[in-house]
Specification:
This protein has 223 residues and is α+β, with helices and mostly antiparallel strands. Helix content is 19%, strand content 44%. It has 5 helices and 10 strands, in the order αβββαβββαααββββ.
Length: 223
């Protein structure tokens, strides 16, 4: 057996800490083995950050470091490069197979968007539902305070919010509208509702689309 196998799978704590929802689904895949050979495999679940892969042969250390995978997710073929995080031998219909946790390294923007559309209702991740208003806990878990401050400043710059500048966060409402990847950077798609009081005592309300980097600092105002 290859030394690449580490006899363990993901714990429940690791499932809960996942950045992206992961959908349990079986799908066919092939990976590029040594000497450029094509090897069959099956995906057991998938998310925007990785997947669980079932193979007939153990992956050698070189493929644990870099594996090119072609998978049929839903009705679409997606290709990406990944790296192994853990592996464990398993019995399938009386025959030894190998189950691996793989983390995505590179993937085309449109392929990642398809994977996220496919896995949006999966388990784990921040538990976001398309079109739902973020609770205070959800907001603070995906938007650190410095990002919330920068969003407030961006809205104030567009005169869609009064930003006091004293460190207090103004009252706004965030709605989750999906995920998107642009130039290899994954984002949360959000809509933020803000209000500004006019001099005639009327209130003007605004809805602004945002892209907020999931694992970085970038914030993009869309309209």
């Amino acid at each position: 057996m290859s030394g690449a196998i580490h006899p363990r799978g993901p714990t429940q704590a690791e499932l809960n800490r996942r950045t992206y929802p992961r959908r349990r689904t079986t799908f066919p895949a092939t990976y590029t083995g040594e000497a450029n050979t094509q090897k069959p495999a099956f995906g057991l679940d998938i998310s925007g950050g990785g997947l669980c892969l079932l193979t007939q042969e153990p992956l050698p250390p070189s493929l644990m470091k870099h594996l090119t995978l072609l998978a049929v997710v839903g009705d679409k073929k997606v290709r990406f490069d990944c790296t192994g995080c853990w592996g464990v031998p398993v019995m399938v219909r009386g025959q030894k197979h190998f189950r691996y946790g793989m983390r995505m390294k590179t993937i085309a923007d449109h392929d990642w968007n398809h994977v996220m559309d496919h896995s949006l209702d999966g388990e784990g991740g921040p538990g976001l539902t398309m079109g739902s208003i973020l609770t205070a806990h959800q907001r603070d878990s995906i938007l650190p305070l410095d990002k919330q401050q920068r969003i407030s400043e961006a809205l104030a710059h567009k005169e869609r919010l009064v930003h006091t500048g004293d460190g207090r966060l103004p009252l706004v409402e965030y709605t989750f509208t999906g995920y998107a990847m642009q130039r290899g950077v994954p984002y949360y798609k959000l809509s933020v509702r803000s209000k500004v009081a006019a001099s005639d005592h009327s209130v003007r309300e605004f809805k602004t689309g945002l892209l907020v980097a999931i694992e970085g600092e970038a914030i993009k105002v869309l309209d």
